[in-house]
Design a protein that fits this description.
The protein is 41% helix and 11% strand. With 294 residues, it is of the alpha+beta class. The protein has 3 domains: 169 residues, no CATH class; 77 residues, no CATH class; 36 residues, no CATH class. A 4-stranded antiparallel sheet has the order 2-3-1-8, covered by helices on one side. Strand 4 and strand 5 form a beta hairpin. The radius of gyration is 26 Å and the shape is elongated.
Length: 294
């Protein structure tokens, strides 16, 4: 591990060299046959400071059992996660209701409604930050091969994570899940099955604010933004935007299929097998698909 710049890095409670270890975010499982020097070198690069080509993350290893490889738990300090979030231009909702790039300098704008340093970044965003830093560990000019493996050549700027995975020096890399959060999501999952309204676009939101500002939309407050569904927001917070969008559309599409499915079932039961009947059902499907896509 590279030396610290000053003693402050060791004494600060949330610094890289402090005794306080944040919860595990990522787990790395090395192959049982991976050379010890290769494992130690990789872990040193994870813990090293950015100016030395490291990720500046925290690592702790499980007690190694006979016949098993090294299992490393990777985490990061709160300040480090915030710095990575700013560097990667993560989009966050501010106190004004607008979605903008996260900034450590304007941290107060993102600490609203009970938000703290522990909750300002969602679990999915913390996982993204840690994985981004791991993938950013690159081989240096003077590093020609992986320690202990002269045959595994390294090129300047090559990702060490990709090399270790390709050569099977690392068996698995995965984020560590929170069992309590997963159980809570599973419970809400079943409750939210029939809470999706696929044709909500036909039911306008008539609220006091919409009536007051209906004549002059420019005077409408900027923070009057319709919040997302609570269940969808929890999925986004834990799994990320792409997974939340997938399940949100899946629920919407499933509920939207109730109408044509019901009509098709009625047609099958009451069918008189006429050309007009099929033409009407085809016309209905055309209108239904158009409304769904709009």
């Amino acid at each position: 591990m590279q030396p610290s710049d000053s003693d402050e890095d060791v004494d600060t409670p949330d610094a890289v060299g402090s005794s306080h270890i944040p919860p595990t975010i990522y787990v790395i499982k090395f192959h049982p046959g991976t050379a010890r020097e290769a494992v130690e070198w990789f872990i040193e690069r994870i813990e090293a400071k950015n100016k030395y080509g490291g990720a500046e993350l925290l690592v702790r290893c499980e007690p190694q059992k006979q016949g098993q490889g090294v299992t490393a738990h990777v985490s990061a300090t709160k300040i480090k996660l915030l710095e990575i979030a700013e560097a990667t231009e993560i989009q966050k909702r501010s106190a004004s209701g607008l979605v903008q790039e996260f900034s450590v300098r304007d941290l107060d704008q993102f600490l609203y409604s009970g938000q703290t340093l522990d909750t300002v970044l969602t679990p999915a965003e913390r996982e993204y930050c840690v994985r981004h830093e791991l993938d950013a560990i690159r081989a240096k000019q003077e590093e020609g091969h992986v320690p202990g493996y002269p045959g595994i050549k390294l090129f300047p700027g090559q990702s060490l994570v990709d090399v270790y995975l390709a050569e099977e020096l690392i068996l698995q890399m995965f984020p560590l899940h929170d069992r309590q959060v997963l159980d809570s999501l599973a419970t809400q999952w079943y409750r939210a099955i029939f809470q999706t309204a696929p044709f909500r676009i036909f039911l306008p939101d008539i609220t006091l604010s919409s009536l007051i500002f209906s004549k002059d939309k420019q005077e409408r407050p900027e923070n009057n933004v319709r919040p997302p569904a609570p269940f969808t927001e929890e999925i986004r917070s834990y799994f990320g935007e792409s997974v939340a969008m997938y399940f949100s559309f899946l629920g919407f599409y499933t509920m939207a299929l109730v109408v044509p499915a019901g009509l098709g079932l009625a047609q099958m039961v009451l069918s008189v097998d006429t050309l007009t009947e099929y033409a009407l059902f085809a016309a209905f499907n055309l209108v239904w698909v158009t409304i769904l896509l709009e």
